[in-house]
Amino acid sequence: MSSELNYRPRESVKAADNGQDVKQMEIKNDDDPYGEEKVGLKRQVGLLSGIALIVGSMIGSGIFVSPKGVLVNTESVGMSLVIWTLCGVLATFGALCYAELGTMIPKSGGEHAYLNEIYGPPIAFLFAWTAIIVLKPSALAIISLSFGEYVVAPFYEGSECGPPVSATKLVAVLCVILIVVINCASVKAATAVQNFFTVAKLLACALIIIIGFIEMGKGNTEYINPKVSFQGSTANVFAYGLAFYQGLWAYDGWNQLNYITEELINPYRNLPLAIVIGIPLVTTVYLMVNISYFTVMSPDELLQSGAVAVTFADRTLGVMSWIMPVAVAFSTFGAANGNCFACSRLSFVAAREGHMPQLLSMVQSTTITPFMAIVTSGFIAILMMIPSDFNQLVNYFSFASWLVYGATALGVITLRITDKDAIRPIKIPIPIPCIVVLSSVYLIAAPIINNPSVEFIYVIIFLILGIVMYFPVVRFKYQPRFMDSVTVFFQLLFDVAPPKGANEDERKE
User: Fold this and answer.
1) Between 20 and 30 A from 137 (CA), which of 18, 60, 184, 279?
2) Using CA atoms, how far apart are residues 280 and 88, in angstroms rounded to an integer?
């Protein structure tokens, strides 16, 4: 998931060793999306392109993996479809909250800019801290594990035990390494990969939906009949929190359009229109894909499947069933590539603002890519995969995400009280942010109440540690003496350099 930001930086830098200049380079590249954000951006993204960005960002690995997690927590087909619908509604409401903030606070950086403006630097730092070390790497790990499952699954289709976890994780690690290499090598290569694999995911969804319509035409509607589809639904209201986690993971990316507000043609019209068209469109696609699954598989068969789309294809495409795992593998690889692209840029911007080590803001002089940010993101993602499985990682991601989304939606309400006279080009009805905030409270509390897991404790400890880190590292600008030597060492080793004056300029803004 990424947004195409076309910045044009001109940067020069010196790296010093023992008081002497050892490196001086000028970084200039017209295709670099990682440069100074003060350079003006052309408004060239129209309504259709905005809708395409939302759809392309949201449809990734989730729809091919999450149906199993939603069903196991709702315990019925009917309620699982209701959850998928409500996830779409909640994503739409959240995006509308971001639309109001995005046009009211027209700064790059999405949540980081909004939280900084509303609550101040400590909360903005906490977001950067959480997003760079938990949110983005866990998302990359989740998508890569999905890639591993769909690559390995065809080789173990007849096995009762399914593919070994070690094989899935090994392929996932190789996926992350390959993506890191591509993103470090060239911005053009990364975006070309993204464009190619976006087509694959759309074709995979279209194929599943078409087959689903054919199966419904044959009368295979036993499990989606409303008279029986709600039988067995869980009565545990807190269990639905984990079902929402699984479903909302598939909707992640609904806030991506806010990262290119400055490039939208007539954003006050096209931003809300793209949201209310794009997200319901994705919701419709997700519902149709899920319905299609249940025209071919029973709920028990879906839960037993290691790779739902592969099982679906084996039962409907015959000798051509290999198309589905290939298409889904392409889709998940593209989603992982986009996530790595976005994650590295967030690290890059946060480092320029002094919220992360300066090393993460450094650009490789030859490839003009944020080399250290990309490598760091990939390294953390691999570490997260080793002890965790798909569901644990989704819990990490969703719990931390909805802390951020809830705080951002609360910001809409806060500004309505503290800054009543501010110009609001887009002003949404106040019940919308209230619903998002209340939903966030439920999504944060319900899984902990229903099934207290160690991953939730880890996230809370991590947030507390971030608060403790803020004051010495950011507020008082304390830096261990060895960091200068480490920074220079990596500069010389990888030929990377920081953007000239970026940190100071960003802090003044």
Assistant:
1) 279
2) 7
The tokens for 196 are: 């190619």
Rounded distance, CA 36 to CA 10, Å?
Answer: 8
pTM comes to: 0.76
Which residues are 26's β-sheet partners?
12
d(CA 509, CA 494): 31
Residue 16 host element (H or E): strand 10-17
Distance of alpha carbon 159 from its chain centroid, rounded?
A: 33
> Tell me, what's the pLDDT at 18?
40
Summarize pLDDT for 316-343 with one digit per residue, the tens. 888 888 888 888 888 788 778 777 776 6
Are the C-beta atoms of 394 and 245 separated by less than 8 Å? yes
Instruction: Give which of 70, 78, 97, 137 is closest to 440, Cα–Cα.
Output: 97
| CA atoms 287, 291, 292, 298: torsion sign | positive
Which of 149-158, 203-212, 363-372 tops mean pLDDT?
A: 203-212
Nearest to 53 by CA among 162, 170, 191: 191
Using CA atoms, how far apart are residues 413 and 425, in angstroms rounded to an integer? 16
The DSSP letter of residue 38 is T
* Phi, psi for 45 (deg, rounded to 5): -100, 110
